[in-house]
Amino acid sequence: MSTTIATRDKAPRRRGDVIFAGIARGAGIAILVALAGVALFLTLEGFPALGASGAALDGAANFLDYVWPLVFGTLLAAILALLIATPLAIGVALVIAFYTPRRISGVVGYMIDLLAAVPSVVYGLWGIAFLGPQLKPLYQWLEEYLGFLPFFAGPASSTGRTILTASIVLAIMVLPIITAISREIFTQTPQLHMEAAMALGATRWEMIKLSVFPYARSGMVSATMLGLGRALGETMAVAMVLSASGVVTFNLISSTNPSTIAANIALNFPEATGLKVNALIASGLVLFVITFAVNFAARAIVARTERERS
């Protein structure tokens, strides 16, 4: 037996395997080098802004006061988008995978995937020209009947360009990402597990709850985190839809809205000079760190789920 193992270990590798391994290793190293280069550039260029104040930071006393409202707006818009998109995306993925005929599910899945190909500027134009005006009566209703809540305190925006409108646009943008990944994970559930549940008398929903969800939990978390990463970094659609004033507020229907880091950079970078450029780059570094932390947390959650399942 030991002779056989030694012979296998010493067997020459095929040229195709060596080439593929080299390409894969080179691609991994290139990605790490690119990430390191981006982090180094953002750190070096953004460092001068850490000690700035006044006009370079839009009147803020220090960099923390400048970037905190932007971080708040970025997280608020992304979390609202996930709260809207995740249940809808998982529901659509379940319908496509288990409830519709194969021909229809293929067409629906293709249409959902097409949403990912729509440019951000188109979503922004749609949000300004159609969605915002259509939501104005809803915002007025929310102010009138639910104005005692801080989220709907008003006054309701007369244009519909609010943080809630921007979040709905973001939700539609991340919907195909979460749906596509969840659908693929659902369809990879072992057939024997589903058939065993059905054989024991489970309904289709009970089968999904008992067999599909436990198997697909880590994939659903990964899909949600990828959607969160897209929502955190989205620029043009938010910059076009949101009427931002750089404040910290939980009011979702007012014309006074927090801005996001990406939208603030896109709107102010063309005219920025001196330390203002460094301040925008430093805020980009903050967004880079937030995105990295989100992805790191997602990997940790997925790894823990895999360990618990095994």
UniProtKB/TrEMBL annotation:
Membrane topology: Multi-pass membrane protein
PROSITE patterns assigned: ABC_TM1
Keywords (A to Z) from UniProt: Cell membrane, Membrane, Phosphate transport, Transmembrane, Transmembrane helix, Transport
Pfam families: BPD_transp_1
Gene Ontology terms: biological process: phosphate ion transport
Annotated CDD domains: TM_PBP2
Residues of the ABC transmembrane type-1 domain: 71-298
Family recorded in the similarity comment: Belongs to the binding-protein-dependent transport system permease family. CysTW subfamily.
Name of the protein described by the UniProt record: Phosphate transport system permease protein
Species name: Nocardioides guangzhouensis
Gene giving rise to this polypeptide: pstC
